[in-house]
């Protein structure tokens, strides 16, 4: 058998895209609670109040005026407020995961549910909510895999501290980690600090008002220090903890064999390798320091930061893989495709999803090989999947053969990476194993799940759960430990 016997088959979600209950049980506001819905053509917006008290909005990836405060506008629709209501459906949902045979379930803890302001005041009801989820998982022998922070920050820390640009936020984050490590130390073994740390750059995600590279990299430094401290602390609380980093891995191929294109791909790939280098090797890579020098970026460090980063390296690399891209210096002839954060160069050998994400199963094997041979620590594919519009037939079925096709090809490539390349892969958690709100577009229409949830882009729906065709397919994959695809 190619997949190891204890391989962690499962699924993945994130609090703000799934839970809802945005003010229930003592939860404080998170930045993402002030981000509107949208679709392919309508960008998500941040609603806020200026220092002068005026209500305004900007695109979710843009900067905010200094002193602007996140604001919930009753005229707008915010998908995080109900999402697909895991808050009230967790027992039903985890029972469905168990029915599929999940060995693990990756979810994130909302910082603002546990520390409503992000500071050192703890909300017991929030802690209990996650304990219920964990207990429900353990009841079925499902290993909880916790993302400590997934794409948001308590609103108070954004409003009062300018989020991660402020060093004080490191202490608050470490306090949050200490709280959950202590509480769940005998129940949770697998942790990841920050989701897709290489994408953290906006008010939405890290609470910073400016979008200048200087602010972004200063905040990244604080995230690195916080993560390193969390890793050290976690290991001191329970030496069996496996604490990982999490990166969005989008490998870029040279468009041609022209050496300049090859170099362009190297430069593109450094964007994610930088974050892995710091968190796995424990130091800033030379090319990044040179880039800072060239671009006039100065990172304010405190004495001891470099040592902390060197000591607090992670136990495994969790990464998301959805697509690859291509790099070239001849930009005038290329076509651009969706991509999520930035337009991506179209690779003429690949087709794309409706949202313009290139479908490239071999790219997953390429990623596994590239990452493993660079870092030599265990890998965990913690996100992968196909966002698509699902049609519900007249008799209520969802025949998602396109999703089955996507997954079977990707799983085959993971198998090859284990069997033929010797990669140490510990698990696989397809994204949005049950339908949840899209992070990029804020819509429900872009679905990833094995389980359909009746909910639309305006927040209408019964929230009823229905198994898609892929549900039984994935159940069989897990039952045969990846032999039957
Ligand atoms: P949605 C961009 C590119 C690759 C992964 O994305 C990304 C993003 C940011 O949107 O994010 C991860 O929902 C992220 C999840 C997200 C998932 O990809 O835009 O960790 O929160 O839902 C899929 O289709």
Proportion in helices: 25-40%
Mean residue pLDDT: 96
Which topology does CATH recognise? Answer: TIM Barrel
Morphology call: globular
Family: Belongs to the glycosyl hydrolase 1 family.
Active site: 383
GO molecular function: hydrolase activity
Protein name: Glycosyl hydrolase
Walkthrough of the structure:
By secondary structure, this protein is an alpha/beta fold. It has one domain (8-254, 266-326, 359-479): TIM Barrel. It is built from 14 helices and 17 strands. The strands form five sheets. It has an eight-stranded parallel beta barrel, surrounded by five helices. A three-stranded antiparallel beta sheet has the order 3-2-4. The protein has a two-stranded parallel ribbon with strand order 9-11. Helix 13 (401-419) links the parallel strand 14 (379-383) and strand 15. Helix 2 packs parallel to helix 4 (124-139), helix 8 (213-237) packs across helix 11 (305-311) and helix 12 packs parallel to helix 13. The radius of gyration is 21 Å and the shape is globular. The chain binds 2-(hydroxymethyl)phenyl 6-O-phosphono-beta-D-glucopyranoside. 2-(hydroxymethyl)phenyl 6-O-phosphono-beta-D-glucopyranoside is lined by residues 14, 17, 151, 195-196, 199, 248, 320, 322, 340-341, 383, 387, 431, 438-441, 446. 2-(hydroxymethyl)phenyl 6-O-phosphono-beta-D-glucopyranoside binds at residues 14, 17, 151, 195-196, 199, 248, 320, 322, 340-341, 383, 387, 431, 438-441, 446.
